[in-house]
Amino acid sequence: xxxxxxxxxxxxxxxxxxxxxxxxxxxHPQRWRVVYHYDGDGVAGASxxxxxxxxxGYPAQATALVHVxxxxxxxxxxxxxxxxxxxxxxxxxxDLFAQHAHPVIVLDHHRYPGVPDPPxxxxxxxxxxxxxxxxxxxxxxxxxxxxxxxxxFLDPANWDNAVWGLSGAIHDRQHVGGFLGLNGTLIDEAIRxxxxxxxxxxxxxxxxxxxxxxxxxxxxxxxxxxxxxxAEEFLRQLSIDPGKAPADLAPEEIDRLGRxxxxxxxxxxxxxxxxKMVETDRWFVPSxxxxxxxVSNLQNAAGREGVPGVGVAVALGxxxxxxxxxxxxTEWRSGVLRGLRRIEEHGxxxxxxxRWFESPETPLAGTQAGLAMNYLxxxxxxxxxxxxDAPAPIKVSSRGLNxxxxxxxxxxxxxxxxxxxVGGEGxxxxxxxxxxxxxxxxxxxxxxxxxxxxxQLGTKGAAA
Length: 464
What we know:
464 residues; Helicase, Ruva Protein, domain 3; Diaminopimelate Epimerase, Chain A, domain 1; six-stranded mixed sheet; five-stranded parallel sheet; 45% helix; 14% strand
């Protein structure tokens, strides 16, 4: 296969969309505003975009979006007197971008109204979305790998954005079961170029094995995660010194620990495809001396802890930003663990076709929901989490499993329709989506979501 990106996808819209976006950007060598979602995928996507703009010599201003709502997008456009590049959001507001007086490039992998038919847009707006060329944006290409690919179309030197594309894809859990489709093509090319190194190993990130296991959230292991003492006892039962550094484990110790963890996850009812993640491919980044999952955690944590610019600064080579991101990662991991421990101890609420809970850690709620769905809840129906910061608008996140998608799950549709029924808005992916709804409408939103999920999954009338 050619190392250039032109032949990666055999669909006419693939080159058409990238060509239009590339032409717009190269025709406007001026200051660009890069707008991105504040999560790990958005931060990584912005990293790819800003590095590519810097290589071109273009000045740029980066703006993170936390709560993405129509009014906020409209206000941002009004305040921007120049071209805009948007990554990891924007598919739902193409009509607003069409009204902007300057060029707009939208690089998004989320479902948009009208899928699979792209909207007609004016010449100064370029919309690049893998759904238009038969690539699944939930499994085969995320915003950061999409932006990485766009940067390669701009200049082949941007293959070195591989680590940031990988960072966002891991955050979006597109590595589960191995990278598929276009993601796989991109990662294979990065490996061929020695930008990343594929290894086998365990997901142990920490100074000691005891710390890594006791603070593990992915996998989250019942009775061990969030409990350093229990983790150390588990390791001693396996004849493994908890004080050892993960890199110092002997091969037979790695095998023993892997078997022990898989047995615990099996007993907890975790689905096989997630249990396999205990012993799976890891990606080491030679230029940073770090595992790609560690990079992903640093960028995502910076966004979730309210300093997304720090995550971007890591990619721009700011050495001080790495330490700030590590401090954010410690706080982020602690907050996620608090939520998962609450669910482990107290459970969640159930309806016939969904489960739900509230989280006081609003920026972390989606992560808590996703990991709870993976490691703590039965795999039959999806889970919703609500912010409890009334009287402000309620933030909603929902998470499912790919096996539920195979049964008909489409959380993007559910969140969009249920939110609209109560005067809110929503959207996203089939397996992960979100919404913003008015205060006091949670119960009506849940009723509408439960009805649609019952139709999708055939669970209508099932026991709660």
